[in-house]
C-alpha cells in the first residue's frame, strides 16, 4: 500500500516538472531524455525502489503486526521541492551527458524516435538507427575535479539548509550532480561526506543550540522537540537534494551501515542529541514532569507532549528509554495516591476517585498515543496501587454496610466493578452483604412497637435488596443466593424467650397482612401502579407470597390464614371472590392440597348454605308464617372450619323459634346430622330509634343484639343492672363484659354506663344513650367480632403445636414402619426431611416425640453403645 | 327506645349424629372428616349406620363389602352388615 501511494506521488511530481521543462527547450537528439523520465518512465530499466525510507518505528519484539511506516517528512519534502522547482527552470547545458545504461556506464543507447511513441510496426516505415557512443571520451572534465566541484555546490546547499537560507544552486542542478556522482560509482564517497557534514551540524550546532536555548532549564522538552522538528524539515530538503543517492544506492543496499538519508538523519539526532547524557535525562525528566502535572490537573501544553511522545517513538526510543521510566514513575505516583486517598477519604469518595483515575488514565493513554501494551500496564499499575494495595480499606465491612444502609447504589456499583477488576466481587462483598441483611431484617422482626408495619417493612426491605442485586451488583448469582439465604435465616430465627420455637411472628404477621389485603384494607407496596384494583391486589398478593416462601413454619401461617378466611367468609368481608380463589390456588402450590382442601370446603359450605336458605325461604313463605326478619344461615362443616368455643346465650323467643324451624328443615333434609348454633359468630342488623327523629340501622354481633334487645320498649332513663342483663342474656361474665364494653365504652356508645370509666363492674347499671348521634344512618358496631382475641391467638398457637407433635409422631412411625431398624441420627434426619415443608422441627422436639412413641410401645431402643431403634409392630 | 331485628345472619355447624371423637372403623378418620378418597364432608361423603350399631363412611364400607374376604360381614363385629334405611 504505501509503495503504491508514493509511486503515484512521484509520478504527479514528475508531470508537474515536465510541463516546466518542455516549453523552453524543444526536444532534440539523444540528450532530450530529461530527469523527468526517471520519474515518469520506469521502462527505462532503472529500477527505482519507490518505497520511501520509513522512519524508525518502534516494533515490539512480540508484536504480531508491525506498524505501518509513517512518513512524517513527506509534506515538508514536497513543499520544498515544489517551491524550488516552480521558481527555477533547470539548465542542463554544460553538464556531462549522463550514462544511459546503468549496467554499462560507457555505452549509451540512443534511439531516434518520433516525438510521440508509435505502436510497434515491424515491417513498416523507415528503419530506425541505433547510435552507440562512448561517452567517456568526449568528457573533458576530470572525474575527481567534477566530484569536488559538485560536492562543493552540494555542501553549499547543505550549509544553506542548515542555516535556513535560500539555496543558491537550482535543485535540478543539485539533483543532477548527485545523479552523476552516483552514476560515476562514487555514491559511497558521497554518502560518507554527506553523513559527516550532517553529523557535524547535528552534533555541534544543533545540540549546542538546544542547550543554549533560553528555556532549556525550565522547558527542555520544548527545546528538544523544536530542534527535532526543525531538523526534520531540514532533513526533508536534504533528502530531496540527495534523492538519487537514496534511490540508486542507499535504499537497496544490503550493508547495514548504509542507511537512506532520512534514517541516517534520525540516527544522528538520536545519537548526538537524545542519547547525549546531558540531554536525555533532562528531556525524559521533562516528559515525566509533564505527565505528572497533567495528572495533577495542572494545565500543560498537551500538543507539545503529544509531539514529544511521537518523537520518542520515531527515534525508536519508546520501549527502551521512555516506557520503563514512565511506568516506574506512574507506579510510584499511583501507589502514593492510593495510600493518600484511601486513608483520608470516606469509602464513597475513595471509590469515586478510583473510578475517575482509571477513566482519566485510560483517556490520557489515548490522548498521548501511548502503546496498547503501555495502556495495559497502566491498567495493572492503577489496579495494584489503588485497589489491591488498598483492599483492606476497599472491603472494610463497616464501610460497605454503611453504603448499603445509605442505599448508595452509585458507590456500590463502582465498588462492584472495581472489585471485578481484581477478583470475584462476591467473595469480598458477601460477608458485609449478609450481615447487613441479617441486621436490618432482625431489627424489623424484633421491633414490637411497629409490629403492624412488619410485613410492609419486610416487603420494602426485600424490594430494596433485590434492587441492589439487580443494579449495582449486576445480577451476581452468589450475592442473589446469599440474599435468599440470609432472608430465610432472619425470618426463621429462634425467639429469645421461647428458644425451642422458631419465631412465628413473621408467619403470623404475613397471614394478617394477606387478610388485610383480601379485605381490601391494605395498600400493598405497589402504590401508584397503574391498572385496576384487581390487578393491584393480585400484584400485592404475589409480593407477600414471595415473602411467605421464606417461612419455614408454614403451619403457623396456615392456622392463622384459615382463621382469617373463616372470619372473612362469616362476616362477608371478602373484597374479591376472584382474589380469594387465586390465593387458594397459590397456596395449593406452596402448602400442598392437604391444606387447601379444608379451605375449599369452607367455600363450598358458603355455597351450599346459600342454596339451603333460599330453599327454606320458599317453603316458609308458602306457609306464610315467617316473622318480618331477613334470615340468613351459614352452615359450617365442623371439620373444615377452625374450632370455636360454644357460647351459651338466650335468644329472644320469636327469633329462637324461627331458627328452630330452620334447624328442623335442615335435619329433615340431612338425616344423621346434628346442627348446633354458633351465636357468637352470628351478626345482625337492628333498626333502633333513639329519639323521635333519630333512627339508626345498627350492624351488631348477635351477642350485642341480644343485650340491646333487652332495652326494647324501655323508657329513657330506665337503668338495667349488670345482673339483670346477665340474667336476660344468659351470657357468662367474660362475654358479657366484653359485649357491654363494646356497647357502652367504645367509639359508638348506644348504651350509657351510670358511672364513668372503661371497666365494667358487676355493680354497674346501664341505660340507652338518649343523646346518641352519628353522621351516618348505618353504623357498624360489630368490629369486636372481627378482632382476634388474645385467647383465640393462644388457641391457634396451641393447636399448631399440637398438630406439629401429631405430625412428627406420624412421620416417625411412617419411617420406622418402612425401615424397621434405624440409627438415632438417621431417624432424626429423615424426620426433619419428611416434615420440612410443614414447619422446621428442632432436634429436641423430635427426641421428645421419639420418647413418647417408645412409651406408647410403637418402637423400642436397642441395647448397645450406639443408639438404634426398632419398630414394634 | 324501639329496637327491631331487620336481618339475622345466623351461623351453625353440623356434624354427624354419632358420639364425638368416633372414628370410621375402616379408615380410622373421624366421621367429621371424609373418607380418604373424598374432599368434602357431608353429602359428598355420607355415613352408613349399620343395624349392628357400627357406622362407616359409605365409601369405606362399600369398598370393604366388595372384597372377597369380607363375606358381607361388619368389619368390627363380624355380624352380617345391614344398614339402617333412612
Ligand atoms: Zn372411613
Ligand atoms: Zn368418601
Ligand atoms: Zn358391627
Automatic annotation (TrEMBL), chain A:
Any GO MF annotation of the entry: ubiquitin protein ligase binding
Q: Which InterPro entries match?
A: Cullin, Cullin-like_AB, Cullin_CS, Cullin_homology, Cullin_homology_sf, Cullin_N, Cullin_neddylation_domain, Cullin_repeat-like_dom_sf
UniProt domain Cullin family profile: residue ranges = 505-744
Mention any Pfam family matching this sequence.
Cullin_AB
Cellular component GO terms, alphabetical? cullin-RING ubiquitin ligase complex
Q: Where is the composition biased (Polar residues)?
A: 20-35
Q: Which GO terms describe its biological process?
A: ubiquitin-dependent protein catabolic process
Q: List the keywords (alphabetical).
A: Isopeptide bond, Ubl conjugation
Keyword Transport applies: no
Q: What broad taxonomic lineage does this protein's source fall under?
A: Eukaryota, Fungi, Dikarya, Ascomycota, Pezizomycotina
Return the SUPFAM superfamilies for the record. Cullin homology domain, Cullin repeat-like, Winged helix' DNA-binding domain
**What's the protein called, per UniProt?**
(Perigord truffle) hypothetical protein
Q: Which residues fall in a compositionally biased region of kind Basic and acidic residues?
A: 61-70
Residues covered by region (Disordered): 1-76, 90-134
Q: Which family does it belong to?
A: Belongs to the cullin family.
From TrEMBL, chain B:
Going by the UniProt record, its keywords in alphabetical order are: Cell cycle, Cell division, Metal-binding, Mitosis, Nucleus, Ubl conjugation pathway, Zinc, Zinc-finger
- What's one GO BP annotation on this UniProt entry? anaphase-promoting complex-dependent catabolic process
Q: Which Pfam families match?
A: zf-ANAPC11
Compartments reported by the entry: Nucleus
In terms of superkingdom, the source organism counts as Eukaryota
Which pathway does the record list? Protein modification; protein ubiquitination
Name the PANTHER family for this protein. RING BOX
Q: What is this protein called?
A: Anaphase-promoting complex subunit 11
Amino acid at each position: 500500500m504505501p509503495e503504491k501511494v508514493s509511486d503515484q506521488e512521484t509520478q504527479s511530481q514528475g508531470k508537474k516538472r515536465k510541463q516546466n521543462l518542455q516549453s523552453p527547450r524543444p526536444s532534440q537528439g539523444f540528450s532530450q531524455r530529461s530527469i523527468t523520465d526517471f520519474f515518469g518512465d520506469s521502462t527505462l530499466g532503472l529500477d527505482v525502489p519507490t518505497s520511501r525510507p520509513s522512519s524508525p518505528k518502534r516494533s515490539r519484539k512480540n508484536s504480531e503486526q508491525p506498524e505501518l511506516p509513517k512518513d512524517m517528512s513527506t509534506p515538508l519534502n514536497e513543499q520544498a521541492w515544489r517551491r524550488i522547482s516552480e521558481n527555477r527552470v533547470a539548465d542542463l547545458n554544460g553538464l556531462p551527458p549522463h550514462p544511459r545504461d546503468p549496467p554499462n556506464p560507457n555505452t549509451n543507447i540512443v534511439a531516434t524516435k518520433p516525438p510521440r511513441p508509435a505502436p510497434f510496426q515491424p515491417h513498416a516505415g523507415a528503419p530506425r538507427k541505433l547510435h552507440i557512443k562512448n561517452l567517456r571520451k568526449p568528457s573533458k572534465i576530470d572525474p575527481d575535479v567534477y566530484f569536488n566541484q559538485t560536492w562543493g555546490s552540494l555542501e553549499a546547499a547543505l550549509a544553506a539548509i542548515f542555516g535556513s537560507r535560500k539555496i543558491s544552486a537550482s535543485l535540478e542542478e543539485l539533483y543532477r550532480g548527485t545523479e552523476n556522482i552516483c552514476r560515476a560509482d562514487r555514491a559511497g564517497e558521497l554518502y560518507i561526506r554527506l553523513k559527516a557534514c550532517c553529523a557535524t551540524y547535528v552534533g555541534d550546532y544543533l545540540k549546542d543550540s538546544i542547550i543554549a536555548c533560553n528555556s532549556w532549564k525550565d522547558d527542555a522538552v520544548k527545546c528538544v522537540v523544536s530542534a527535532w522538528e526543525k531538523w526534520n524539515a531540514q532533513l526533508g530538503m536534504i533528502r530531496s537534494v540527495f534523492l538519487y543517492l537514496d534511490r540508486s544506492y542507499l535504499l537497496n543496499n544490503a550493508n547495514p551501515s548504509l542507511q537512506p538519508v532520512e534514517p541516517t538523519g534520525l540516527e544522528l539526532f538520536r545519537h548526538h542529541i537524545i542519547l547525549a547524557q546531558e540531554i536525555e535525562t533532562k528531556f525524559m525528566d521533562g516528559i515525566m514532569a509533564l505527565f505528572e502535572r497533567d495528572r495533577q490537573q495542572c494545565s500543560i501544553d498537551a500538543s507539545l507532549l503529544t509531539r514529544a511522545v511521537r518523537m520518542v517513538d520515531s527515534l525508536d526510543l519508546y520501549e527502551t528509554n521512555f516506557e520503563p521510566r514512565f511506568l516506574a514513575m506512574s507506579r510510584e505516583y499511583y501507589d502514593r495516591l492510593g495510600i493518600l486517598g484511601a486513608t483520608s477519604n470516606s469509602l464513597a469518595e475513595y471509590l469515586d476517585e478510583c473510578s475517575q483515575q482509571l477513566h482519566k488514565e485510560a483517556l490520557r493513554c489515548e490522548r498521548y498515543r501511548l502503546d496498547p501494551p503501555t495502556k495495559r500496564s497502566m491498567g495493572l499499575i492503577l489496579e495494584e496501587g489503588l485497589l489491591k494495595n488498598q483492599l483492606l480499606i476497599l472491603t472494610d465491612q463497616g464501610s460497605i454496610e454503611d453504603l448499603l444502609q445509605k442505599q448508595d447504589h452509585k458507590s456500590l456499583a463502582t465498588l462492584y466493578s472495581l472489585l471485578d477488576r481484581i477478583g470475584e466481587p462476591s467473595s469480598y462483598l458477601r460477608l458485609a452483604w449478609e450481615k447487613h441483611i441479617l441486621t436490618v431484617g432482625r431489627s424489623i422482626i424484633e421491633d414490637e412497637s411497629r409490629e403492624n408495619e412488619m410485613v410492609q417493612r419486610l416487603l420494602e426491605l426485600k424490594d430494596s435488596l433485590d434492587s441492589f442485586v439487580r443494579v449495582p451488583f449486576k445480577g451476581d448469582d452468589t450475592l442473589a443466593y446469599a440474599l435468599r439465604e440470609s432472608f430465610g435465616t432472619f425470618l426463621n430465627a429462634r425467639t429469645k424467650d421461647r428458644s425451642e420455637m422458631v419465631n412465628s411472628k413473621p408467619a403470623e404477621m404475613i397471614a394478617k397482612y394477606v387478610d388485610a389485603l383480601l379485605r381490601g384494607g391494605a395498600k400493598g407496596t405497589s402504590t401508584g401502579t397503574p391498572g385496576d384494583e384487581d390487578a393491584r391486589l393480585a400484584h400485592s398478593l404475589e409480593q407477600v407470597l414471595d415473602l411467605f416462601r421464606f417461612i419455614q413454619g408454614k403451619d403457623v401461617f396456615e392456622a392463622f390464614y384459615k382463621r382469617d378466611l373463616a372470619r372473612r367468609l362469616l362476616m362477608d368481608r371478602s373484597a374479591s371472590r376472584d382474589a380469594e380463589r387465586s390465593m387458594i390456588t397459590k397456596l395449593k402450590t406452596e402448602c400442598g392440597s392437604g391444606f387447601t382442601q379444608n379451605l375449599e370446603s369452607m367455600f363450598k359450605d358458603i355455597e351450599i348454605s346459600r342454596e339451603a336458605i333460599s330453599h327454606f325461604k320458599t317453603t316458609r313463605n308458602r306457609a306464610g308464617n315467617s316473622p318480618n326478619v331477613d334470615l340468613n344461615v351459614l352452615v359450617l362443616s365442623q371439620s373444615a372450619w377452625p374450632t370455636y368455643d360454644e357460647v351459651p346465650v338466650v335468644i329472644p323467643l320469636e327469633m329462637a323459634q324461627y331458627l328452630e324451624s330452620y334447624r328442623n328443615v335442615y335435619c329433615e333434609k340431612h338425616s344423621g346430622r346434628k346442627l348446633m348454633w354458633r351465636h357468637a359468630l352470628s351478626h345482625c342488623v337492628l333498626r333502633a330509634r333513639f329519639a323521635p327523629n333519630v333512627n339508626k340501622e345498627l350492624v351488631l354481633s348477635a351477642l350485642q343484639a341480644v343485650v340491646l334487645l333487652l332495652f326494647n320498649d324501655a323508657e329513657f332513663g330506665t337503668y338495667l343492672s349488670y345482673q339483670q342483663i346477665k340474667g336476660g342474656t344468659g351470657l357468662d361474665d367474660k362475654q358479657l363484659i366484653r359485649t357491654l364494653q363494646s356497647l357502652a365504652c367504645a367509639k359508638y356508645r348506644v348504651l350509657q354506663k351510670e358511672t364513668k370509666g372503661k371497666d365494667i363492674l358487676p355493680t354497674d347499671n346501664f341505660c340507652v344513650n338518649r343523646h346518641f348521634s352519628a353522621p351516618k344512618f348505618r353504623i357498624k358496631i360489630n368490629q369486636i367480632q372481627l378482632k382476634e382475641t388474645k385467647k383465640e391467638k393462644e388457641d391457634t398457637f396451641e393447636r399448631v403445636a399440637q398438630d406439629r407433635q401429631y405430625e412428627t409422631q406420624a412421620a416417625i412411625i411412617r419411617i420406622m414402619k418402612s425401615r424397621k431398624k434405624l440409627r438415632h441420627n438417621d431417624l432424626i434426619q429423615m424426620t426433619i426431611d419428611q416434615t420440612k415443608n410443614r414447619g422446621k422441627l428442632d432436634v429436641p422436639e423430635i427426641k421428645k416425640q421419639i420418647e413418647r412413641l417408645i412409651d406408647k410401645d410403637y418402637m423400642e431402643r436397642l441395647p448397645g453403645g450406639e443408639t438404634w431403634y426398632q419398630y414394634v409392630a | 327506645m324501639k329496637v327491631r331485628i331487620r336481618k339475622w345472619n345466623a351461623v351453625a355447624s353440623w356434624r354427624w349424629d354419632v358420639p364425638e371423637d368416633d372414628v370410621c372403623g375402616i379408615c380410622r378418620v373421624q366421621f367429621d372428616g371424609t373418607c380418604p378418597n373424598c374432599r368434602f364432608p357431608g353429602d359428598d361423603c355420607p355415613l352408613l349406620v349399620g343395624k349392628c350399631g357400627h357406622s362407616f363412611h359409605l365409601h369405606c364400607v362399600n369398598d370393604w363389602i366388595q372384597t372377597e374376604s369380607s363375606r358381607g360381614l361388619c368389619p368390627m363385629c363380624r355380624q352380617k352388615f345391614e344398614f339402617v334405611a333412612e
